[in-house]
Every structure is written in structure tokens, then in C-alpha cells.
Design goal:
heterodimer; A: alpha/beta; Rossmann fold; 2 domains; about 35% helix; B: about 625 residues; alpha/beta; 4 domains; six-stranded antiparallel barrel; 20 helices; 27 strands; about 30% helix
Chain lengths: ~300, ~625
């Protein structure tokens, strides 16, 4: 007898979910957000369908405010794996010049990400979209289904979610309705890092500590990623050795001071530091229950 | 995070070495509203040092502000996710929690204790290895305790922890604990829970949760965490007969044909013979493929891709097994069904059933009995309502491979899906195949439908008239039959009223009986189509699902749905049989259009607007339609 480790069991479950969703949908897509969870999800997709390529494209909903390193990594990854990459940029948000500085994080996230995602899904007629969300990320996600049903308007209604028993997923839907599918539901942040380490999965270098130009603002360290970051009076970029625990739009994602320059370092730091990962993201702090509201509106 | 000793934390590489070999345990917690379940899980997370500093800070702040423990840490606040339930102070759905110790990673299904949420408990239990059932030491065993235990055993959980909580409030009394323990063990034996462990604890104070308590010197058993870290659960699936459920045919190019799926039980090696079910074709496994290289052994739980020596036809939902330990193949079963929808189960209504990776049509017969989950009594039942559990027979529209649920959860557990809303409306567990499904073989007849039809000089078909009472269905159907008869076609008219005098005289007008009424007529119509006839069916047939069933029984082009469309006001004004008046007076219950719904067809082959054309013209249109489809032509 050979018993499986927890990571082997998680991997097998995720592969099972990926295959099930592909078999039961007409036009699946993987939402690729470039972060570590997306890296793991993509790696699992490569395993699930091998020797075939994953039978779906990657979709990145770009806000034009992502870290430059993320975009470089995104394009290199799609090329390395030979996968189709669709990049969607909300034309409305672009025309309005939406940015987090003048419009605030709520409007910025809604227009670029939530509306942008809906546009992209509608435009291509995707009926199943894989996402890298985990149940341990945030309280309101602890009850999220693995196959999360969305109305034709992309709304998430807690009352319409189907009970999920055993490993049987009900992926049936009417025309226009869709599924968000979360193969990493049962993974934790630690599982993700451990798996990246064991499987040697490439991740964006921003996760590793390097000397970088930052400014301190409202209790967080912001990376001066390009000239668009308006400096407030008295703010002078300084070089600090920092890294990111989570990646999003650079003006909305705080860096932490760190010396963790490799994976064991990151894992060690995570084990000791104990600050939950979304703390670094500004969007969760807009209002109590904010993630739940965003989810109902169609954000992941 | 996890129980990191300072030493390991200093050397992450060593930590990873240790922690990558951990196993995984999934468990379920259940208890009544005030048993302290959320507090217990919060305590486990806290003691396992799974909480982050900012979560602890938030917990401390919220405990002061809205806590129910007088300013002490209120662990329950860690868990309540959705804002609605935080305001109401109840948990309304299954939530999954995660924590990890040096020995194991844990996935906790946290299910609410409310009376009406059998559905959630079954859902949480379906993936659990162990159930932790809480009782309040002050209250002892409650109705809910028995119900939760029964549901756990129903879903096949054999290992149960009875956590006797709030021992601090009974002065850590040994006598209280032992009384509850003895009473529970007696009950557990009756419902087949074979491995029960009872632990006295206080989730709030931490007694016997992770560390043995000085307050219970008389207790020498394991702590809750100690038990969860060591209970053995994995060997069963691997020792069971090999089953692989095929999810996806893997064909990257013309030279490669693999089958991707999960080994749900047993083990497989290259070179072994496998049989594909239900087709019963055999071949030899050539490779077990993963991205990380071919395997020389695949074990239960792994997702793999296999290739076979022979090119045989395998589709999604098929099962691979070894010839010496095969699953059965059948299409009629006895099963335990748990109903999960607000809309009651209707015997005879066509539902979909998903089992493994296969979705098939299924109808359920009237329950043999339902179970009172509080007393375990068997009660007579005609249907199952939300959260009711019963034993029924199931009839599928095709043969499927299966194992009884108690032998294999993945091969015997299923969900039921509504054909129109696509919601999951029930779940169930297969007990066994009905003998008649083994013994009634399809008799191959040599004079085929085509041969019958050739003699008649037309194509057989069903012309299905649906519409409100008084819409004019029977009048129009009669004229159509006369016209076809005059053309020398061999027809037969099945009329609702007439059939209810004979074949269906045992049926009333409840929703369930109406479903059965239509099912029987649809089957009769199918037989008549096989006999080569043009069958005219004139029934109100108010529900879309049953009309779909009738349609599905025959070939696609053999079904013509005629919607005799009369607004309720018009039909009621005509009221040829005086039935609407009776229904309005309340003398006639479940009358379509009055107190029972009519679901109009969405895309009928022919729609007759009876406010614009008369019966004669309507009949002409229908005959004209049948001409265009070639029904009246010689085959």
C-alpha cells in the first residue's frame, strides 16, 4: 500500500475538477491572473490533460496597472507552454482613464476587473471559467462551491448555489449561464507554496526580495513601478529590499520589507510572520463584507 | 501556521521535508445550535497556530465588540462567513476550514445544526472520513444528536467522535460524562456506527482539545486533536477492487488514444487486463501516463491517463475494472434518496441522474417508505419533501456500471438534477440492482417498427395535443382523426377522460398522480408507434417535464407537439363540462389553470390559436403539417 501525501491528494482532486469542467462545458477558459495561484493552476492544467495541451485558452483581464514584471512573466509563460493567451482591456475604462489614484480602489477594481471580466466572457462566449481562488483566503469564500453557478448577468446568488456531494459536480446550465470553477478550493497558502517548491514551478520574481524603489504611504510600501505613480509632497522614492506576498495592481499592492530571496526563505518567512495574505491588498478593506459584495457583482 | 517548532522554522528546507509527507484527513463537525461547534473549530484553528496575527487581532477586537463570551475570545466569530448570517448569528451553509499540524492537513466541513438543514449535513458528510458530533454536557443527547449520527451513518461514515462539550459547566463531572457516553454507545450500535470515541472537553477553556486536561484526571483517552491526527482512514479504498471512472478521452493526435480519469479504488499496473463497463470489452493496460512520467503502479485517489493495447470504444462515464472483480451493470435499483429541493419529489417524473462521470435519465417510483430521522421510524410516503429521506426504486434509461454505495462511495453515490432548472434536487445511494433488471432482458422482435409501418403505408408518430381543459383539444383531435382515417391512414386516439376510466382509473389529480397519468399514456403511445400507428394523444398534460418524457420515448421525428392555445379566460368561459365552476367553488382540487399550474410549451411543432381559428381549420393545419414532415408518405 502506498498512501498519498496531502499535496498528492490535493493535486489529484484539482486534476479531477479540471477534467470534469472541460468535459461538461462547451467553451472553457482559464482566468490567468499571473500570481502564484495562477501558476499552480496552470501547472495542474498541464498535468490534467497531458499528453494533450489544456483544451482552453488563458484569459488575462488586464487593468494596465499591473506590475511590469507580471506582464513580462505572463507573455513568457504563454510562449513557453505554447498556449493561447487572450488579453482583455476594458475599452471603457481605458477611454475614461480609470486609475486608482483619482477614482479610488473601488471604482478602479469594478471597471477594470469586474466589468472587464464580464465583457471578455461575453465577447468570447465562455461558459466555464477556471479561477485560482481558495476557500482559505477570506471568510466569505469558505462556503464557495467548487463549481460556482453564475446567472446570465454573471451574478453570484448564494441561494442558487448547488449542493456539492462526493466528487460529483453538477455543471449543467442553460444557454447564457456559466460556471466559475475553482480547482484550488481546498488548498491553503502554505500548500500552494509547498507545491511550487516541490514541483519547481516558475513564479513572478516580485515574490522574491530584491532591492526595489518604493515610497511609504498610508502604512504600506508602494513600488515605483513606472512614472505614473504620482508622488505626494515630500515623498522620495527610496531603495529597500522588499517583496510581495500577493500581486495585483501595483498602486494597490503593498510590499513588505524582507530578505526572503528564494522559496525556502518565503516559506520560512510565512511560517514565522503570520499576517494573512490578502492583508496586503487594499481592496478588501473598502468595507466590511466587501469581498462578498464584489463576488455578487461578478468579481472573482 | 501549523505547529512549527522554532528549530524547524529556522530551517525551511527541513520543515518542507517533514511536511511534504503529511497525510490528509477530512472531517465533519455537527451539533445543535448552542453546542459550541463554531467555538470548537475556532479553538482547533487557534491551538494549531493556524491563525495569522492579524486574524487574532481582529478576533480580539470583535470579541470585545460583538462577542458573546463577555470579552473573552469568542472563537465562533472566526467562522461565520456571509454577512447575512453574521447578523443573524446562525450558520446557514456548509463552510470548509483548513488547518494543519506536524502530522496531518485537515479539511473541516462545518455544517449547521438547524432542523431544516439535513441537506447541508449530507453534503458535508459525503466527503468526510470522520464525523465529530457535539453535545452540550448539560443537555445530554438530543434529538439532533441522534439525527446527526443517523445521517453520518447513512452517508457511510463509520468513525464518529462524540465530543461532550462544556464540561466546565458541569464541574467536569465524570458521572455526567459516563452517563452520556453509555447512552450514546448504545444508540450508535443500533445504527451501525462501528468506531465511536467519546471525549469530555471544553472548547471554550481548551480541555482535552489539543492537550490532556488536568480537570479530567479520570479520563485517559485521546484528546480530540490526538485522535484526529492518528485515526487510520486510507487503507480501505486501496484494498477495494480496482475502479477507474473515465472522464475524458485524451486524443492529442491520431496516434495517441488515452483515457483520463481517477482511480477511485484499488490499484492498477501496466500489463493488467481490464474490462470496460458497461460494454464489457476487454483489453490490456499498456501505459499509465502522467506528466511526471509513466507509473508502474496507480493507486486509489490518483488522477491518471491510461492507454490500452486494443482500439476499443470507450466514452466518458465508462468504468474500467479488472475481470476478476467486476462491478454490476443494471438499470433498475433500490436506493436511499435524500430530497434537497423545495419542490417535492414526483414519482414518475423524468429527472437526470449523475453518477461518476455519467449523466442518465432517471425516474423514481413512489417511495417504499420514508425515514423519520429523529426516531428512525419507517413511515408510509407518496413523495419526498425537502430534507426528507426515503427508500425508492429508480429506473434509468440506460444500463450503468455500479457498486453498492456501502462498498464504494464513488460507484454508488449519485445526485439528481432537475431537467428544466438544472438544479441539484436530490442525492442518493444505490443499495442493489432490482432482480427484474437482471432477469428481464429486452426481447428482440423480428418484425420491426419499420415493417409494421410499411404495411400501413405511412410513418408512425405521436401527435400530442396539450392545452387547458376546455381549450378544444379533443374536438380538434377528433376531426384530425376523421380526416386521417378518410385518407386511409391507420390512427388511434387516446383521450384523457377515456383513459382515466380504464388504465388510469387508480389515479387521482395530485401532482404526483398527474405525472404518473402522463407517464403511462406516453408508454402506451410508444407501444402504438412501435405497432406502426399514428397515435393522437389528447391530454391536458400540464407539465413540460412529462411532455419531454413522452417526446424522449420515441424517435425525434416521430413526435409532434400541438399546443391548443386558449387563454384561461376563454377556456373558462366555454367550460363545456362545468369543471371550472366546480373548481372556482372549491369543489374540485388541483384543477389546471385554477390551483394547479399549466406550463405552456416553449416550442411546439404546431400552435393553434383557438381565439382566431375554429376547430375545422385547426385540424386542416395539423394535417397539412403532417404532410410536410412526410408522416403521411409511404416509408
Amino acid at each position: 500500500m502506498r498512501s498519498l501525501t496531502h499535496l498528492q491528494r490535493l493535486e489529484a482532486e484539482s486534476i479531477d475538477i479540471l477534467r470534469e469542467a472541460v468535459a461538461e462545458s462547451e467553451r472553457p477558459v482559464m482566468l490567468y491572473s499571473i500570481g502564484k495561484d495562477s501558476s499552480v493552476l496552470l501547472h495542474l492544467a498541464m498535468k490534467a490533460f497531458y499528453p494533450s495541451k489544456p483544451p482552453f485558452p488563458l484569459l488575462h483581464v488586464d487593468t494596465t496597472w499591473k506590475f511590469h514584471d507580471m506582464i513580462t512573466f505572463r507573455d513568457a509563460t504563454a510562449k513557453r507552454l505554447g498556449l493561447e493567451l487572450i488579453v482583455h482591456i476594458n475599452p471603457e475604462a481605458r477611454a475614461l482613464g480609470i486609475n486608482p489614484f483619482t477614482h479610488g480602489s473601488a471604482v478602479h477594481t469594478d471597471l477594470w476587473k469586474t466589468q472587464g471580466l464580464k465583457q471578455a466572457l461575453d465577447k468570447h462566449g465562455f461558459d466555464a471559467a477556471f479561477g485560482g481562488a481558495r476557500r482559505d483566503e477570506e471568510k466569505s469564500r469558505a462556503k464557495e462551491r467548487i463549481f460556482s453557478f453564475r446567472s446570465a448577468q454573471h451574478r453570484w446568488d448564494p441561494k442558487l448555489q448547488r449542493p456539492e456531494l462526493w466528487r460529483i459536480y453538477n455543471a449543467r446550465k442553460a444557454k447564457g449561464e456559466s460556471m466559475r470553477v475553482f480547482p484550488l478550493s481546498n488548498w491553503t497558502e502554505l500548500d500552494v507554496w509547498q507545491y511550487i517548491f516541490l514541483e519547481d514551478i516558475p513564479v513572478v520574481p516580485l515574490y522574491f526580495a530584491r532591492p526595489r524603489p518604493v515610497v511609504a504611504r498610508d502604512g504600506t510600501l508602494l513600488l515605483v513601478d513606472d512614472q505614473r505613480l504620482p508622488l505626494r509632497p515630500g515623498e522620495i522614492p527610496m531603495t529597500k529590499t522588499v517583496r510581495f506576498r500577493t500581486l495585483g495592481c501595483y498602486p494597490l499592492t503593498g510590499a513588505i520589507e524582507s530578505t526572503a530571496a528564494d522559496l525556502p526563505g518565503i516559506i520560512r518567512e510565512m511560517l514565522l510572520a503570520r499576517t494573512s495574505e490578502r492583508q496586503g491588498r487594499v481592496i478588501d478593506h473598502d468595507a466590511a463584507g466587501s469581498m462578498e459584495k464584489k463576488k455578487q457583482e461578478g468579481y472573482f | 501556521m501549523s505547529n512549527v517548532s522554532e528549530l524547524i522554522a529556522l530551517d525551511a528546507g527541513q520543515y518542507l521535508q517533514v511536511h511534504q509527507h503529511k497525510g490528509l484527513l477530512r472531517f465533519l463537525t455537527c451539533g445543535s445550535v448552542d453546542d459550541g461547534k463554531s467555538t470548537l473549530i475556532g479553538r482547533l484553528l487557534y491551538d494549531a497556530k493556524t491563525l495569522y496575527d492579524d486574524q487574532v487581532a481582529t478576533l480580539e477586537a470583535e470579541s470585545q465588540k460583538i462577542g458573546t463570551q463577555g470579552g473573552e475570545l469568542d472563537f465562533a466569530l472566526l467562522l461565520d462567513g456571509l454577512s447575512a448570517e453574521r447578523e443573524q448569528g446562525i450558520t446557514i451553509d456548509v463552510a470548509y476550514r483548513f488547518f494543519s499540524t506536524d502530522k496531518r492537513k485537515f479539511i473541516v466541513a462545518d455544517t449547521p445544526g438547524h432542523e431544516q438543514y439535513t441537506r447541508n449535513m449530507i453534503t458535508g458528510a459525503s466527503t468526510a472520513d470522520v464525523a465529530v458530533i457535539l453535545v452540550d454536557a448539560r443537555k445530554g443527547l438530543l434529538t439532533q444528536t441522534r439525527r446527526h449520527s443517523y445521517l453520518a451513518s447513512l452517508v457511510g461514515i463509520r468513525r464518529v467522535v462524540l465530543a461532550v462539550n462544556k464540561m466546565d459547566l458541569v464541574g467536569y463531572s465524570r458521572e455526567v460524562f459516563e452517563r452520556i457516553r453509555d447512552e450514546y454507545l448504545e444508540f450508535a450500535g443500533k445504527i451501525g456506527l462501528s468506531e465511536v470515541v467519546c471525549i469530555p472537553l471544553s472548547a471554550l477553556r481548551g480541555d482535552n482539545v489539543t492537550a490532556p486536561s488536568g480537570n479530567t484526571p479520570w479520563y485517559h483517552g485521546a484528546t480530540l486533536m490526538g485522535y484526529l491526527e492518528t485515526v487510520e482512514v486510507e487503507s480501505e479504498a486501496q484494498n477495494a477492487p480496482f475502479r477507474l471512472i473515465v472522464q475524458w478521452a485524451n486524443r492529442p493526435n491520431l496516434d495517441f488514444r488515452g483515457y483520463s480519469g481517477r482511480v477511485v479504488s484499488g490499484t492498477l499496473r501496466p500489463g493488467e487486463r481490464v474490462r470496460v463497463l458497461p460494454s464489457a470489452k476487454e483489453s490490456t493496460v499498456t501505459r499509465i501516463i502522467t506528466l511526471d512520467g509513466d507509473l508502474d503502479l496507480a493507486v486509489a485517489g490518483q488522477s491518471v491517463t491510461v492507454t490500452l493495447a486494443d482500439e476499443i470504444d470507450i466514452s466518458r462515464g465508462d468504468v474500467l475494472a479488472k475481470p476478476d472483480a467486476l462491478p454490476e451493470v443494471a438499470d433498475q435499483f433500490e436506493a436511499q434518496v435524500v430530497w434537497m429541493s423545495e419542490e417535492a419529489m414526483l414519482p414518475g417524473r423524468p429527472y437526470l441522474m449523475k453518477i461518476g462521470a455519467r449523466t442518465v435519465g432517471a425516474t423514481i417510483t413512489r417511495p417504499k417508505y420514508k425515514v423519520n430521522v429523529n426516531t428512525l421510524e419507517h413511515l408510509a410516503a407518496t413523495t419526498l419533501e425537502l430534507n426528507e429521506i426515503g427508500v425508492c426504486n429508480l429506473h434509468l434509461d440506460q444500463m450503468i456500471p455500479f457498486d453498492p454505495y456501502e462498498q464504494n462511495r464513488d460507484m454508488g453515490g449519485f445526485i439528481l438534477i432537475d431537467r428544466l432548472t438544472n438544479n441539484t434536487i436530490g442525492a442518493g445511494m444505490l443499495h442493489f440492482a432490482l432482480r427484474r433488471s437482471h432477469n428481464i432482458h429486452w426481447q428482440a422482435v423480428e418484425v420491426s417498427k419499420q415493417a409494421h409501418a410499411a404495411l400501413k403505408g405511412h410513418q408512425p408518430c405521436v401527435v400530442w395535443f396539450t392545452g387547458l381543459s376546455g381549450s378544444g383539444k379533443s374536438t380538434i383531435a377528433n376531426i384530425v382523426e376523421k380526416k386521417l382515417h378518410a385518407l386511409g391512414r391507420h390512427t388511434f386516439l387516446l383521450d384523457g377522460d377515456n383513459v382515466r376510466h380504464g388504465l388510469n382509473k387508480d389515479l387521482g389529480f395530485t401532482e404526483a398522480d398527474r405525472v404518473e397519468n402522463i407517464r403511462r399514456v406516453a408508454e402506451v403511445a410508444k407501444l402504438m408507434v412501435d405497432a406502426g400507428l399514428i397515435v393522437l394523444v389528447s391530454f391536458i398534460s400540464p407539465f413540460r417535464a412529462e411532455r419531454q418524457l413522452a417526446r424522449d420515448l420515441v424517435e425525434g421525428e416521430e413526435f409532434c407537439e400541438v399546443f391548443v392555445d386558449a387563454p384561461l379566460s376563454v377556456a373558462e368561459a366555454r367550460d363545456p363540462k362545468g369543471l371550472y365552476k366546480k373548481a372556482r367553488r372549491g369543489d374540485l382540487k388541483n384543477f389546471t389553470g385554477i390551483d394547479s399550474p399549466y406550463e405552456a410549451p416553449e416550442s411546439p411543432e404546431v400552435r393553434i390559436d383557438t381565439t382566431r381559428i375554429d376547430a375545422e381549420e385547426a385540424a386542416d393545419r395539423i394535417v397539412a403539417y403532417l404532410r410536410t414532415t412526410g408522416v403521411l408518405e409511404r416509408p
